[in-house]
Design a protein that fits this description.
With 79 residues, this protein is an all-alpha fold. It has 4 helices and no strands.
Length: 79
């Protein structure tokens, strides 16, 4: 998958989890900016992303992520 495809897939996943408007979703989006993005939902979100994108993340990779843009880059690198 290229970065555009990954970004679109992530938007769909984030929208399902957090009911985000398209205008709210961008590469600089962080957990602090999203209502309901707590530690439990973070785990559920990462599991869902791994399943839908066909990738596996290490706990270190997940903890190093700062925003959606970095998540997109990580997925592109793994596909």
């Amino acid at each position: 998958m290229d970065s555009t495809q990954v970004f679109e897939t992530l938007y769909e996943i984030f929208n399902d989890f957090f009911d985000l408007e398209r205008s709210e979703f961008g590469p600089e989006l962080t957990a602090d900016q999203v209502d309901g993005w707590d530690s439990l939902n973070h785990i559920r979100l990462m599991l869902n992303i791994q399943q839908k994108c066909g990738v596996k993340f290490s706990s270190g990779e997940i903890s190093d992520l700062k925003n959606v843009g970095q998540l997109t880059e990580l997925i592109v690198a793994k596909t």
